[in-house]
Give the backbone structure.
Amino acid sequence: MSLLDVNVNEFGERRQSLAESLHIDLPLLMGILALLATSLFILYSASGQDMSMIWKQTIRFAVAFVIMFILAQVNSNTLKRWTPYLYVVGVLLLLAVLIMGEIGKGAQRWLDFGFVRFQPAEIMKVAIPLMVCWYLSEYPLPPDGKRLIIAIMVIAIPFILIAKQPDLGTSLLVAGAGFFALLFAGLSWKVLAGFGLLGGAAAPVAWYLMHDYQRQRVLTFLDPEKDPLGSGYHIIQSKIAIGSGGVYGKGWLNGTQSQLDFLPERSTDFIFSAYAEEFGFVGVLVLLAIYLFILARGLLIAVQAQDTFTRLLAGSLTMTFFIYVFVNIGMVTGLLPVVGLPLPLISYGGTSIVTLMASFGILMSIHTHRKLLPR
Amino acid sequence: MPAITLKDHFRETHMFNVRVVIVLVLSLLSFLAVVVRLVYLQIIENETYTTLSEDNRFFISAIPPTRGLIFDRNGTLLAENLPAYNLELIPERIKNIDATIASLGEIIEITDADIERFKEQLGPSNRFKPIPLKTGLSDEEVARIAVNRYRFPGVDIAARLIRHYPDTGLMSHAIGYVGRINEKEMKNIDKVSYEGSNFIGKTGIEHFYETMLHGHPGVQQIETNAQGRSLRAFEQVPQEPGINLHLTIDAALQKAAQEALGEESGSVIAIDPNTGDVLAFVSTPVFNPNLFVTGIDHKTYAVLRDDKQKPLFNRALRGQYPPGSTIKPFVGLAGLETATIEADEQITCRGWYSLPGDKHRYRDWKKTGHGKMSLHFAIVQSCDVYFYDLAVSMGIDRMSNYLIPFGFNAPTNIDITGELGGIMPTSKWKKEARKAPWYTGETVIAGIGQGYVLTTPLQLATATATLSKKGKRMRPRVVSAMENANTREIQYLPPVEHAPVSVIDEAHWNQVINAMQDVAHHWRGTAYRVGKDAKYKIAGKTGTAQVFTLAQDAEYKENEIPKELRDHALFIAFAPVENPQIAVSVIVEHGGHGSSAAAPIAKKVMDHYLLPKLEKPAVKTEKAPS
């Protein structure tokens, strides 16, 4: 009689559980709640026990939860109808940012609506997979060359607009979201290999087109020790924090790297390092396990989805989330260059939580709006 | 829709599921990479990173030692250390120093002089050391900075001990002062001993005894945050304070001597002839040494430097003056010893002297002449002609070679930095130093302590002390004992005796000393004015040193000559004659006559020192035995 299962009575009639009638997927919800709890816990320590930050983050969680809940109620057909509008509005907002965006952190990323400021790029994290999946699902898969090119255009336009802001991290991430939609849609491995080669050949061109600070990040990634007090400082201090955490960590509130301010951005992009310092290898394994659980659940939802659109969508949204996690952890552990991405659902900050929770809402909707046949 | 190809749902689902598996495997592999990375960072390299994080957190800092205190012979504190709050900046931790200083300037007053001094100390070698921007902050300033401190990483308030000389100026020339270590000194000092120290002895005793006064720094471990703000300190090795010095100088006597000189520029040295202990070491005008401790600004320094009376000039130690007639007792003794004259041999003084075959007249200070003169009265009345004749008869080399053992030429080796010697000329000296032959005319004036003859006040005082003890020569000294600041254990330093001045006939001492006694006590003596009322017997000699040479036949009229060209007034003395306790040299620059300007000052100093002792003759007020 668990809430997780679909109950069927002796007459073969389905009886809906509470979670099901609310269109909530309980395993996914559990994973999310575990992350949010972890977030508040480590944030309390990393913020220097600043309760106002905890409250702000809690309010963000609440708002994001409401959005997730609302999206979970939306039938995938309705979602499908919204998709082109959402995509077009998103692209227009990106253009607006480029034209009249105000300066935030030296780059134009924000739109200010007076009561709320947000990054239109965040919309694209959901809008691109939606658009690509919507487009591809109308036709037989795998897509033929013409459709593939159109799909790539769908990805490339926002990618270029975001990269121009310039926000390399987010632009790569939205491109990744679209890429996974293509991949799940059956993009042939030959084409993929071709892209790989093309990418390799394009690297010098990309280097030429990059902003100075982006080049600096790549250089710093390659050799952080070269500039220990300048651009290499973040990554060096992050590695020290993680490494000094050891197997069991220094204990909650006892991380010297984060408590004494040596770790920069310790409540936002580098919160993983603060976590790893205080909870050690064991704590990190637990966190990774939660992420893996969410990944597995998301992919399961994708596999169980009933039509091409929802299937592709569930798969690419889940993978977007995963890429997010991997890029952030890879960056703070020195495996990847510092691209400035938050750790999903853990880092302090609003917009990324809202978009992530929105995609979880879509995942839940996909899973709970299936038309199940009685056994 | 031209949907010719139909969707094959089964094939699509199969392909999708295969791709999900592939993606899942790739995801697991990438997580595995992360885990491997974490194993490397957190387990394999854990020790390395733990060390790095400790290095981040802690930094080893030196505890500067407390500088040794300086006391006078009676235990009066002359140099102490006062706590003061300093505003210090660590250049390495400040991105824009000028902007930081400008913002600090909005909170508390920071003068251009502060900034200038700060910039002077700003060098590539000490970027990690806190450099004081402003010293001696008031309580209000400390509070203002403390409230705004979060805005200024790398800026801190430090409680430090600052050298302070309580009796402003009294000891400025003897003790000297400490100041901030400059780049040049930085190269010469032992970096380890001076870790954390900002000050070093610059002049005087502070410089001479630097290694003892300084002490040895301790070590502490300080926990800091990323802004370099100290959070906690764990002391590991305590500092070793510097040695306390006990001086031979009597602060009260010093004060009396200084007051006796008044507004005049000059010098008074008083020495205990038995030990060489310097009882008073005065050079006027004085200056406030406290100005130099925290760093003097250019304007104040310029005022001191350009002052016509030269307050920064240590006359007692470095002033080279013609001794004038004060040299006469020594020349007289040389005459007796070299058998150039007999004590009762008389010559006639007509008021002038001239060399055979030369028309130039060397004048006596008494135009009418002294008449028939023996050595005794030549000293008592300070007859110049007698000594012109004696010097010429002796010859410059014999005379000088006899006087040099009194210490007239070389520095006395007193334990104060920066001493200069004098000149007791010989023909060899002139050939080497001036590349010229010696002329007999120069011997004439050397006989009355003019011409090339130069002595420092300190040399005059030590020579007088040697004379008073009939040849026993003590090295003058200002430090008699050293005290361990922790154990309070006092180590007394034995007086140092130089090779004595030996004489052929002991009676010669008495002949000269008797003459000097009559200088003060015979009615014809040039210092009778100070000697007649004395409660003890004084032996002295007045002197007047020419600052410029009068034209032949010109007359020296004191009132018509500008002050800076007037003669220096000198006086040397010791007392009591029968058991010398104090030897004094006094120089009053442009003071006129030794008898009127210098001798009364010496009298006051001797009175101050001797009268209390004479009232209680039973108590021997010698310093504790060594």
